Amino acid sequence: MSTSRYEDLSEEERKVYDAEEEAREKEEQAALPYKWTQDLQTVSVSIPLPKGTRARDLQVVLQKRKIKVQLKSASEPIIDGELFNDIAVDDSSWTIDDDIMSIELEKLSAHIKSHQWWPHVVTSAPKINTQKIQPENSKLSDLDGETRGMVEKMMFDNQQKAMGKPTSDELKKMEMLEKFKKAHPEMDFSNAKIG
Question: What pTM was estimated for this model as a whole?
Answer without folding.
Answer: 0.65
